[in-house]
## 1
Amino acid sequence: MKIYVASSWRNQYQPDVVRRLRAAGYDVYDFRNPREGDTGFHWSEIDPDWQSWTPDKYVVAMQHPIATAGFKSDLDAMKWADACVLVLPSGRSAHLEAGWFCGQGKPCMVYIPEPIEPELMYKLASRICTSMDEVLRLLAQTGPLWGEGAMTENDFSTMFKTGIPACGIKCPACGVMLIGTTQAGSDDPVPTTCPGCGQLLHYYQQEDDWGMFRWWQVRAKKEESGG
Ligand SMILES: [Zn+2]
């Protein structure tokens, strides 16, 4: 799977995110090093005095061949990628890129490694993750994107929004994958008894440290005493 990492030059987490995604076997577009020997786009290449531009000077500079090439490099990578990980904190560019993925219907995860100002429109994203482990776990659960066994766009949306994906979380007792979704009234509900070992299962939502985001978890449920 090909992943576009959207972030800012100032973001301290981005290099580690790129490294961990690559270590997990993903093809990653790193805007800081889009190609061998290319260290990405910088306004200073157009004009060392770029920080004092007027709006009109900025509009003219946008037509500069370096700006055109820099934009094309990023946009081509966005079209190439199957999914986006927006790494916070980040600025306008990364947010426009992530918004493009949401609008295209491609999976987009917002990764929040440190406390941030709350933002309602992150609800556009497929999922909000508070750890890199969670990002990797979700990506691992997406399965193939094309060919045999590929998920449909609807699968993706269900998977990310309900938290219990088609290829499931595991039974805490025997480790069997629990297939289904937690969505109320779903045609494909998760099993309440493990198909592997018969363990009764209880699904619950866990909140993050700030109580803002929730995701589904499973635990073994004690046998009910009856009566
Ligand atoms: Zn089991």
Note: The chain has a mean pLDDT of 81.
## 2
Amino acid sequence: MTKDLFGKALLDYHKGNYTEDLITSTNISDEDVLPLPYLFRAYSEMPKLEKKALQLCKGNVLDVGCGSGSHSLYLQEKGFKVKAIDNSKGAIRVAEQRGVLHTELKPLLEETDTFDTIMLLMNGTGIFQTLEQTPKYLNHLKTILNPNGQILIDSSDIKYMYQDDDGGYWLDMNANYYGELDYFLSYKGEKETPIKWLYLDFETLKTACETIGLDCEKIMDGKHYDYLAKLSI
Ligand SMILES: C[S@@+](CC[C@H](N)C(=O)[O-])C[C@H]1O[C@@H](n2cnc3c(N)ncnc32)[C@H](O)[C@@H]1O
């Protein structure tokens, strides 16, 4: 069971009780600060990949793992019909309180409505957790996609995280896929239950898509090994 520390942090920030940021780390990297204001970013503060994804939206939109609802709010203001889902209770409460009109507390695999655009942003592949589970998630996304619909998803090739100072890689070829990380989160001294979080390089995502009959096109590269992809049937 998770403690929903992510949701608690969003709620604190939203209520004006911002005193600390979230602290993240992974099995291959040290502690890092995830600033809460970033999770409430306005369109002008979003990375170019996210701006591009928002510009490409069409029809009715599903925002998967909506967090505080920043992307949904932008689209709503532009006149789009948007549904925002998240499996964090705190996130959904904040998204509602910020004005997202259609929200639901549910994991992606329980979504059954259908959409013209499905958006998964801020390392959208993270939600798949492992490479092994990726086909299950992609298949599900396919079943909730309308004809001529699109899935907009961002991720990164994190091979650079395994690079030594001398430029060599310390990848263990017998281990699981290198983008599968154990992800640790803490907030105000409390530790969240560790989760699996998946970063997929574009070629691996494309192969997984093709295996289940989805087209996968790279829309844009980001600043640091990240990219935006568009999946369609
Ligand atoms: C990195 S945050 C991104 C939040 C938001 N999209 C943004 O860009 O600020 C990932 C979000 O996905 C949610 N999440 C993780 N697994 C999920 C799942 N299986 N179904 C729905 N939401 C999920 C988390 O609770 C969290 O709010």
Note: The pocket of S-adenosylmethionine is lined by residues 6, 39, 64-67, 70, 85-88, 91, 107-108, 121-122, 127 (CB under 6 Å).
## 3
Amino acid sequence: MAARVVILGAGHGGLRCANALAPRLARRGAVTVVARENYFLYYPFLRDLVAGAADLTEVAFPLREVLDPRVRLVVGDLARVDAQGREARVRLPDGEERALRYDHLVIALGSSTAYHGVPGARESAVAFKSVDDALALRLRVLDALESEESGGRLSPDVVVAGGSYAGLEVAGALHDLLRRAHRVYGPALRARPPVIHVVEGERRLLGGMPDPIPEYVQALLRRRGDDVALGERVAAVEPGGARLQGGRLIPAAATVWVAGVEASPAVNALPFQRGKEGRLRVDPMLRVEEGVWALGDCADARVGGKEAPMTAQHAEAEAESVASNLVRALLGRPLLPYHHRTRGLIVPLGEGLGVAQVGRDRALLGRSAGLLWRAFHLSRLPGASRKARYVAGWMTGAPRQRALIRAPAFTFRASSRPPS
Ligand SMILES: Cc1cc2nc3c(=O)[nH]c(=O)nc-3n(C[C@H](O)[C@H](O)[C@H](O)COP(=O)(O)OP(=O)(O)OC[C@H]3O[C@@H](n4cnc5c(N)ncnc54)[C@H](O)[C@@H]3O)c2cc1C
């Protein structure tokens, strides 16, 4: 009998797994993907949406275009999984529930923002994990800039809670947006340029990246006039700003919350065993139990005895590993443990600059890392026409031209959904 494979989630891991499985299963099974949205969000470019350097079509790709045509897509929210009955129930956009029977279940549901119980953070901060988040952040900053120019009371400063790579990516994107504003807005803004306050609980930025990367980033931010508060934590978030543990209140247009991730509510509700931070416990072959697999941010996977980093790079490598092990399981062949050597990490910092960790401990700083970031992600855009349009846009200055537009194309569904 042909195997029915249901994949929950169509992010970096789920999409890769579906596309790796579909051709290999061709006559041996059917692949169904469940996704909350009908598009694939390319997270590394979310910073460009904040900066106004990209529009939605360069950041989000219709799943029906990027999924292998043999894969069936069901757009809806996972309602529950019945492990004994081997059935996943999905709530469709019209509110109806659809049951999907499976022989193999692949869980690739990603992660959620962790607020650690900080008062006001969930309600008043902006996360950095969805199209809605990026657009909501842009709107808050652009509104504050207009207010400042008209003598209003909104502060255009921004607090970034968390100095890991996501925090520095968003700080860099905000710097690009504010730099553009600084050129074209009037005297009020020029007299007092907005400040980005990066608040990090540890004593160094980008924990885990080798020297001299953290020192370079800190010096760059300070040279730009940004405030880097190390060894400090945001203790409360209010609509008008953030209060630090020491009591200092920073008035701000927005507090961006990038201070941690945790298992999403959908993962918490699954009837399977948990590992670290509520993620699903998996064996070295990435199996949760017989016929159930987990990968990406929602899986507590190990590589070389250590925790696998929560990155797109690992989610995609785990997806390839699950796809080949699943086929091996169907053919009755022995399974292979997951292995992937981390290639490195590149963090864009704005103004075309960046930092990159290459391999275990080589560092690239400045323009070369910025270029590497853009070239690498450009190469990963699906389809030649998207790549060509992206390059043409940059060559003709389109990103600069749209940076400050507060238009319906950008306000599309912003803030319609509670933060993820
Ligand atoms: C702003 C940002 C920038 C990043 N930049 C980089 C980078 O440069 N390099 C890098 O390697 N990593 C980067 N990462 C990390 C990387 O994006 C994640 O580690 C990766 O996306 C994990 O893949 P995943 O498949 O596990 O989860 P995701 O890609 O998050 O996919 C999860 C999927 O599950 C769906 N889903 C969730 N709940 C439900 C539900 N209840 N019902 C139905 N569907 C559901 C979601 O809609 C989504 O499609 C970045 C992350 C962020 C937020």
Note: The chain is about 35% helix and 25% strand.
## 4
Amino acid sequence: MNEAPEKLDLFPYQYIGEQKKIEDLIRETVAGGVSAVIESGTGTGKTVVSMSGALQAVLGTDKKIVYLTRTKSQQKQIIHEAKAISRKRPIMCIGVQGRSMNTCPMMSKDPENAGGTSEELSRLCSEYKKDDGSGKPCKYYDNIGKMDMVDIIDYVRDSHPEPEVFSEYCLKRDICPYETVKHLIKYADVVAAPYSFIFMPHIRDRFLEWAGTPLSRMVMIVDEAHNLPDYLREVMTLEYSMRAMTLAENEALEWNDPVVHAGLTVTDIVAVLRECLDEALSEYLSGDDGMIPATFLQDELMDRLGMSSHSLNMIYKGLIDNGVMIADAKKAFQRSVQLRVETIAVPKIVEGPFLLSDHRNFWDEGYPALFLTDTAFYRNKNYHENTDTWDTLDYDRLVQVPVGLYHLILALDAAK
Ligand code: SF4
């Protein structure tokens, strides 16, 4: 264990109960590079004690404290205590959050984006940040480069804003709160972050990059650590339920149970998935719980379907590729127009409205083709009737279609 660092007078209140002892224990633990698990009841001041103890071992070194919380309200408490400690010695504390209506003004202005998953929002943001003139850039991102970062650092260091207050500060200056926080992390002594920023590997990698600090130089304080087993199980678990399989079967039957690979239909695959689930229950369930090996599903599917991992991956990749291609096409179309677009992937086997256009001939000959429709006679009672006259058309929307198509074609070409 390293020698204990010099004690600093950082605790901003009168000590009560065992606070001083716990603060010393944390200071020595952090300085020694070991871990401590501390149980402390509600109202015992554990946030301020752990922060002042850890800061004594960290200030003046190249280490950074990352205070991990499960809830946003706990982030506020951390920032509140950092502000109190700053009365003794100035420190910088910043709260980080994922993209949301609060942290991404582009999303708050476009309700359609707001319902996206974090992966979709991340892809959308990457598109908006492109500087190649191919689309509509994000002004909130561009404006960050025009700001003096020192002013923003001073503001955070002096005011200790809660995340919502910091977002308001950024919005008043037309800069993106999410991206601005990323720039500030490297200057902070304490970063208050959700569990996911460390415990989800793909988020952690980006977080470490923003912080410019390796994991070995970060001191983690995990708030409410008793939540960790449940949290980790939740985020590391892939889930498929009997209900989801029944829904998949019903949906497949509605669409004539399409063949997905080598004569196997969707319901054939679902039936095998049911068998796999039964097998997992009988093999691994002990009481209410069980740990299923990571390769279980793939091994079982290969056995039961008599397929190689390559064939399984082909099915999987085909489904993903279709989904991604459709999402990309929608995004490209909407890049500079305000039209609402709905997308759907349907197997060619489906008859009816999805085949009523020229793309059908391309599909018949094996060429990939997208079908764009305004839903024709399903929406417009004048379609192909004598009443289909110029004065019934919506020209404002009409002119947006070729603009959207232009961007869609560029995107498809670039993706070739
Ligand atoms: S840069 Fe910021 S405002 Fe722009 S899309 Fe990304 S998160 Fe949203």
Note: The pocket of iron/sulfur cluster is lined by residues 99, 104-107, 125, 128-129, 138, 140-141, 176, 178-179 (CB under 6 Å).
